[in-house]
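Problem 3 from the worked examples.
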Amino acid sequence: MFNNDFFFLNINIMEEIIDILKTACAEISTMMRNTDPLSLSKLININNKSGDSVKSLDIISNTILKNHLSKSKYVKIIGSEEDDELYYPENQYDLRKKYMVCFDPLDGSSNIDSNITVGTIFAIYDLSESDNNTPLSDILKNGNSIVCAGYCLYGSSTQFILATNTVQIFLLKNQQFKLIHNNLKIKEKGNIYSINESNKHKWIGDKNQQFIEKLLDEKYTARWVGSMVTDCHRTLIKGGLFAYPENKKDPEGKIRLLYEAYPFAYIFKIAGGDSYNGKKNILDIEFPKNIHQKTPIYLGGMYEINLFKSI
């Protein structure tokens, strides 16, 4: 009986954290819809730890998410792409605080001034097996420690995509997220690939070029927005492949493991797809000691990922 009570308690705690994320994303959505995108896209005179230029909206979104999550009785650690280090809210030694939430507050912010869809990406980790003296790297072995992941899209409509046991889609209507799809599955084989081919002369080796040639032989077409959250959402909906390989400029890859790669690898797994970094499944990559570690990434249906592995 105790175990059942503990299980349902954890479910309720998760729902509370997810509701906090929904509230924060609804606030970001409202702010975006009522503010001049040209002013939101203005550069601030700093770069984040990942080396990217920081926009006004990056900072605003980061502040909104941190403020809301900091009020939770259950969130012990907050990690943001915009912060140099992990953030510990007040009362971090409260025994109820058993979760870490990591996020990219505004993915695709370089597209804000063009009014192109951008989004928030997040993942939740269970720290219930830890104590206050245990190093984080001893608790979280890799991306398989995620218990929930998702993202919020700010486009023609605002949608909140949540991966737990299934992938659900919620639509923001009257400031409330309403469930519109309960079990999103990616096609095993699609017909669209999404990759920045302007980097092809910088790719390391010829494997990616061979892969694209195979896809073209099979009548795939290319689509590239340049906002990961948008390109990955289309891939989930329509099937196919999203990829950002390593290149001579970024030999370790471009996509941040903790804030982008882990969450999307988890979402694709729950949706019936797969992930890869050229050597192993993204979720099997060791939890990073540098919280801004980057990785090459391939996300898609089982057919596309297996085809790439076969080359």
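Problem 4, a separate protein:
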Amino acid sequence: MPATIQLREIFDAIGDGIFVADANGRYLEVNPAGCAMFGYSRDAFLDLSIADVVDQSELPGLAERLAVNPVGTITRSEWLFRRHDGSTFLGELVGGRLADGHHQAVVRDISERRQQEQREALIKQEASHRTRNILALVQAVARQTAAASPETFLDRFEARIGALAASCDLLSDGHWDAIELAALVKAQLAPFLAPGPAAERLVADGPALWLEASAAQALGMALHELATNAAKYGALANDAGKVLVTWQVSDDATPRMLLEWSERGGPPVMPPSRTGFGTRMVARMIQSTFGAETTLDHAPAGLRWTMACPLAALGGADNAQRA
């Protein structure tokens, strides 16, 4: 087979676009991949110049970019190209000028690669941000737990870190997008409920609502503190008590989530002589994260805690769409 035929077959078979243009930038040759890349037939392409296939934003510096290529050297650059249908793509161009002044280039569409790089950079940035937030939260919990109850620090600290880990596990399962409120409630109460019939001691009821990472972590810690208190003094301290966690969305012009934790069937409730760290932490964390209004009622029949916050404070995009 003649060498020229072999070269032509290779030219036609290569998956990247190959282009040859004269000294003025008018195309002299293009392979099938190049035609497909831009959406032109070969005949149509040979009526075009480089200026016809780059985006308008590239035109001011086009002549200068072409002129700086010394004869015989290969350069690599990125261009924003425009297809026949008007759509654009980012292309990596490898080429240079031949001895006769013609331009020869290989072009590869790198739009997907660049988008992937941007996604990976965003993920790394978000992971770093979340890690800093979690470490700050762990540090605050450790400091406050040690100050409030140094004699039981290890047990209380491990329990609170376990609660934070439970929220993080749910977020990880959902690719750190958002988690459903019902799943968060069940995950935080699970360590306090024995398998089987005892699990019926939790009622979690409300519309499907989603929480983003910071909101899930904060509310998860609050639920853990409430459950810890219920296991020591409230509805989960005996075999007959029940915890009801219910929520709803108001139909106000600015929708709000109304959540209530109530206990039934536990020992008679006695108001505490002082406000413990857990109670203070719940109030501060919920207020700072959600801008919420909270109430705490030590009614003899069972503790009742409520929070009301803007629906937007949960952060889940689905919540805004539903509202």
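Solution to problem 4. The mean pLDDT is 80. The chain has eleven helices and twelve strands.
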